[in-house]
Amino acid sequence: MDAYSGYNQIRMHPVDEDKTAFIADQATCCYRVMPFGLKNAGATYQRLMDKVLAE
């Protein structure tokens, strides 16, 4: 896993993708991967890294 762009490699649950919707240039977009600015993004990333690196 590339830690430099770590947040952008964690897939959002399909049900939650619509909750991250935003409007840009007359189109409605939503994130399919976890964006950096979400409230629990840091905790989710840390929990995933703990599971990946656990012995």
TrEMBL record:
SUPFAM superfamilies: DNA/RNA polymerases (SSF56672). PANTHER family: REVERSE TRANSCRIPTASE DOMAIN-CONTAINING PROTEIN, TRANSPOSON TY3-I GAG-POL POLYPROTEIN. This is Transposon Ty3-I Gag-Pol polyprotein. Residues 1-54 form the Reverse transcriptase domain. InterPro entries: DNA/RNA_pol_sf (IPR043502), Rev_trsase/Diguanyl_cyclase (IPR043128), RNA-dir_DNA_polymerase (IPR053134), RT_dom (IPR000477). It comes from the Eukaryota.
